Amino acid sequence: MAVTDPTAIKFCNERVRVYADLKAQLCYFAQVFDDEWQAKDMNTLIPAGGGDIEDSATTGDGRTIITADDVRALRQRVTDDLAILENQAQFNTILKPAVNPTKA
C-alpha cells in the first residue's frame, strides 16, 4: 500500500532526500579528501602528537584551535565514510533516494 500522508511525503522530500544527497556528497568528498591526504603525505606532515595546527586560529581569529591529533581523528571519520562508499549495497541505500548526489 502506498504512503499518501502529506506529512510523510513532506518529510521524505525535505529530510530523507536531502540527507541522502548530503551523505552521498560527503562520501564522494571523503574520496577526494583521502586521495589528497595520500598524495600530499599528510601522515608525515601531520604526525600523531604533533601539537597545534598553526593556522590563523592560533592568533585568535575566532575559530577553535585544532591539534594534529584532532585532524587525525577526523581523518578516521573520513575512513568511515569511505567504507560506506566502498560497500556498494550500503552506498546504494544512500543513492536511491538521493536527487543530486554530486561528486566533489
Structural overview:
It is a single chain. It is built from four helices and no strands. The protein has one domain. The termini are far apart. Helix 1 crosses helix 3 (68-86). It is an all-alpha fold. The model has no long low-confidence stretch (mean pLDDT 95). 62% of the residues lie in helices and 0% in strands.
Topology:
Elements (H helix, E strand, L loop, with lengths): L5 H34 L2 H4 L22 H19 L1 H8 L9
Q: Give the number of domains.
A: 1
Strand content: under 5%
**Rg calc:** 18 Å
Helical fraction: 55-70%
Number of strands: 0
Shape: elongated
User: What string, H for helix and E for strand, traces the elements in order?
Assistant: HHHH
What structural keywords apply?
62% helix; mainly alpha; 104 residues
Short description:
This protein is mostly helical and 104 residues long.
